[in-house]
Automatic annotation (TrEMBL):
Superkingdom in the source lineage: Bacteria
Subcellular location: Cytoplasm
Name recorded for this polypeptide: Urocanate hydratase
InterPro entries according to UniProt: Urocanase, Urocanase-like, Urocanase_C, Urocanase_central_sf, Urocanase_CS, Urocanase_N, Urocanase_Rossmann-like, Urocanase_sf
EC number(s) reported in the record: 4.2.1.49
Function noted in UniProt: Catalyzes the conversion of urocanate to 4-imidazolone-5-propionate.
UniProt xrefs under Pfam families: Urocanase, Urocanase_C, Urocanase_N
Gene3D superfamilies: Urocanase like domains, Urocanase superfamily
Annotated Urocanase N-terminal domain residues: 9-135
The organism of origin for this protein: Streptomyces boncukensis
Annotated residues for binding of NAD(+): 50-51, 128, 180-182, 200, 205, 246-247, 267-271, 276-277, 325, 495
Cofactor: NAD(+)
GO molecular function: urocanate hydratase activity
Length: 559
C-alpha cells in the first residue's frame, strides 16, 4: 500500500450513509470535520488547535481509521491509541463504537520532554481536549466560553447587589489581549450588553478583530477610549473599544486617573514571558529582542507583569470585580516579587465552579447533514425548552446572527443537569420526525463539570483540597461507556500541558431511533451527573441542592 500523505479533508454531508450505522457514520464525519481546513489550524499536519493538538497520529492512521469506520459493525468497537487504530473488538450494540486513549504517560514520565521523545519515535500524539476526540467546532467554542464567563460575572454582581441587570448593561470592562482566544473578549462582553476597553500592543490584531466583527471601534488614545466607554455605558449601549498600548503602562495610568471601571481581567500571553511585551520596549522590536536576549527579556516582562497585576489589584481595592483568566499572570507577577499577586481569584473558582455545581458545562452538537437549517431548528427548540433562561436565550439569538459556521454547522451552549437530557430527547424526536435532515452528534468539551482533573485550571482551589485527584475523569469515562455513548475518550495534558491534567470526553448520536433515544437519556443524565456528585463530594452546597433536585444518589449522604 502506498504511504498516505496530506490531502484536503471534508466530512461528507447529507442523509446517506458511508458506514453501517449512524454512530459509526458520526465518528467518520466528525473525525474528518476536525481536519476540514475551515476548522483545523494546520490540517496538513493533522493539527486541529491548541499548539499541536491532533486528530490522528499520522496520515496512515487517519486513512486506516476511516477505512475501519466504514465497515465497523453495530456490535464492534474500534480502539484508538493516541490517534492510531490498534484493534477492533466484538462488543455489543450498547457499547461505544470507538474508544480513545490519547497522550497518556505513567506519572513519573509525564513531562513534555519525555512526551516529545516518544512522539518523535512515532509512539504517541498530543490529543488536546477536542482535537483527538473529534468534537472541535472552531472558534464558536471560545466565544461561547468567554460569553458564559462574562454572563457569570453579571450574575455574581447581581447576587451581590452591585449591579441589578443580570447582564453587563451599564458596566465597563477593562481587559487586554486581542489574540487567538483573547479576541473573543470584546464580542463576549457586548453580547452580554456591556462596554469593553481592550488594550492591545499589536495594531494588526486590533484591525483584524474589527474586520471580523469581534471588535467595534479603535480609540485614538486613552482619553478617547474612556469618553466613548462612559457615553455608551450611560446610554446602556453595548460597545467594544480597542486601545493600542502596553497594558503594563495603560492599566496603572487608568487606575491613577480614577477611571470608572467595573470589571478587570486580562488575556495577554502572560503564560509565556517571551510573548508578553515589557515596559519600555517597542512592539516592533519585541521579537528580535526576545530571541536575542531571552533571559533579559523574561526578567523585564515579569517586572512589567508585576506592575500590570499591581494595577489590577488596585482596581479590586477600588471596588471592581477582578479575575485572572487562566493566563498565569498572577504567578508571573509573583515570580517578579509582587507580594499581593494572588489577591484576586482565577476565573474557575470565581465563576465557573458554581455552574459546575449545577452540572452545567460546554454542551455542543453538530448537524451531520451539513445543513445550517438543522442548527436553526435546534436553536428554536432550545428557546422553546428553556424560555426562562435569559442568558441562554440571548446567546442562542446572537449566535444565530453573529457566528459563522466552520465545517459542519454546530452549536454550543452551557446546559446543566436535567437540561442536557431534555435537549437530547427533543433532538432525537426531531430526527425521528424528519424535522432535521440527518442525525446530530451531541458531545462536549473535556473542560466540563465531572470530566477533568486540572489543578491549575478547572480544579484549582477545590473546597476539600482534591484539586489533583484524578479518579473523577476516569469514573466519568467509564460511566459514559456503561451508559451507551457512541465514542468515549480519555486524554492527558489538554489545556495546561503534560503532567498537569487528565480529562475525558463523550459524543453520543441522536439518530432518531428508540435505542438512540434511550442511550442519550442515560449518557446525558449520567455524564453531567458525575460532575454534580464530584462537587457534592467536595462539599459544595449548590451541588447538594442539584443532586437532591434531580434525585442523584450519593451513598455517603444516604442512610
Ligand atoms: P495570543 O498569544 O494569541 O494573544 C496574546 C495577545 O496579547 C497578543 O495579541 C499580544 O500582542 C498581546 N500582548 C502581549 N503583551 C502585551 C502587553 N504588555 N500589553 C498589551 N497586549 C499585549 O494568546 P491567546 O490565544 O489569545 O491567549 C491569551 C492568554 O489567555 C493565554 O495565556 C491563554 O492561555 C489564556 N486563556 C486561557 C483560557 C482558559 O484558561 N480557559 C481561555 C482563554 C485564554
Amino acid at each position: 500500500m502506498a504511504a498516505a500523505g496530506p490531502r484536503p479533508v471534508r466530512a461528507p454531508r447529507g442523509g446517506g450513509l458511508s458506514a453501517r450505522g449512524w454512530p459509526q457514520e458520526a465518528a467518520y464525519r466528525m473525525l474528518q470535520n476536525n481536519l476540514d481546513p475551515e476548522v483545523a489550524e494546520h490540517p496538513d499536519q493533522l493539527v486541529v488547535y491548541g499548539g499541536t493538538g491532533k486528530a490522528a497520529r499520522d496520515w496512515g492512521s487517519f486513512e486506516a481509521m476511516l477505512r475501519t469506520l466504514r465497515t465497523l459493525k453495530d456490535d464492534e468497537t474500534m480502539l484508538v491509541q493516541s490517534g492510531r487504530p490498534v484493534g477492533v473488538m466484538t462488543t455489543h450494540e450498547w457499547a461505544p463504537r470507538v474508544l480513545i486513549a490519547n497522550s497518556h504517560l505513567v506519572g513519573d514520565w509525564a513531562n513534555w520532554e519525555e512526551f516529545r521523545r516518544l512522539e518523535q519515535l512515532g509512539l504517541t500524539m498530543y490529543g488536546q481536549m477536542t482535537a483527538g476526540s473529534w468534537i472541535y467546532i472552531g472558534t464558536q467554542g471560545i466565544l461561547q466560553g468567554t460569553y458564559e464567563t462574562f454572563a457569570a460575572v453579571a450574575a455574581k454582581l447581581a447576587r451581590e447587589n452591585k449591579h441589578s441587570a443580570g447582564s453587563l448593561a451599564g458596566t465597563v470592562t477593562l481587559t487586554a489581549g486581542l489574540g487567538g482566544m483573547g479576541g473573543a473578549q470584546p464580542l463576549a462582553v457586548t453580547m452580554n450588553g456591556g462596554v469593553a476597553i481592550v488594550v492591545e500592543c499589536d495594531p494588526s490584531r486590533i484591525e483584524r478583530r474589527i474586520a471580523h466583527g469581534y471588535l467595534d471601534v479603535r480609540a485614538e488614545d486613552t482619553a478617547d477610549a474612556l469618553r466613548r466607554a462612559t457615553e455608551a455605558r450611560d446610554a446602556r449601549r453595548p460597545l467594544s473599544i480597542g486601545l493600542l498600548g502596553n497594558a503594563a503602562e495603560v492599566l496603572p495610568r487608568l487606575l491613577a486617573e480614577g477611571a470608572p471601571i467595573d470589571i478587570v481581567t486580562d488575556q495577554t500571553s502572560a503564560h509565556d514571558p517571551l510573548a508578553y511585551l515589557p515596559l519600555g520596549v517597542d512592539f516592533a522590536d519585541m521579537h528580535t529582542y526576545a530571541k536575542e536576549k531571552p533571559a533579559d527579556f523574561t526578567r523585564r516582562a515579569r517586572e512589567s507583569m508585576a506592575r500590570h497585576v499591581e494595577a489590577m489589584t488596585g482596581f479590586q481595592d477600588a471596588g471592581a470585580e477582578v479575575f485572572d483568566y487562566g493566563n498565569s499572570i498572577r504567578g508571573e507577577a509573583q515570580l517578579a516579587g509582587y507580594g499581593r499577586a494572588f489577591a484576586f481569584p482565577g476565573f474557575v473558582p470565581a465563576y465557573i465552579r458554581p455552574l459546575f455545581c449545577e452540572g452545567k458545562g460546554p454542551f455542543r452538537w453538530a448537524a451531520l447533514s451539513g445543513d445550517p437549517k438543522d442548527i436553526a431548528a435546534t436553536d428554536r427548540a432550545l428557546l422553546d425548552l428553556f424560555p426562562e433562561n435569559e442568558s441562554l436565550a440571548r446567546w442562542i439569538r446572537l449566535a444565530g446572527e453573529r457566528v459563522h459556521f466552520q465545517g459542519l454547522p454546530a452549536r454550543i451552549c452551557w446546559l446543566g443537569q436535567g437540561e442536557r437530557a431534555a435537549a437530547g430527547e427533543r433532538f432525537n424526536d426531531m430526527v425521528a420526525s424528519g424535522e432535521l435532515a440527518a442525525p446530530l452528534a451531541l458531545g462536549r468539551d473535556h473542560l466540563d463539570t465531572g470530566s477533568v482533573a486540572s489543578p491549575y485550571r478547572e480544579t484549582e482551589g477545590m473546597r476539600d483540597g482534591s484539586d489533583a485527584i484524578a479518579d473523577w475523569p476516569m469514573l466519568n469515562a467509564m460511566v459514559n461507556v456503561a451508559s451507551g455513548a457512541s465514542w468515549v475518550s480519555l486524554h492527558h495534558g489538554g489545556g495546561v500541558g503534560m503532567g498537569r491534567s487528565l480529562h475525558a470526553g463523550q459524543v453520543t448520536v441522536a439518530d432518531g431511533t428508540a435505542l438512540g433515544g434511550e442511550k442519550l437519556r442515560r449518557v446525558l443524565t449520567n455524564d453531567p451527573g458525575t460532575g454534580v456528585i464530584r462537587h457534592v463530594d467536595a462539599g459544595y452546597e449548590q451541588a447538594e441542592r442539584t443532586a437532591a433536585e434531580h434525585a442523584l444518589r450519593v451513598p455517603m449522604r444516604e442512610g
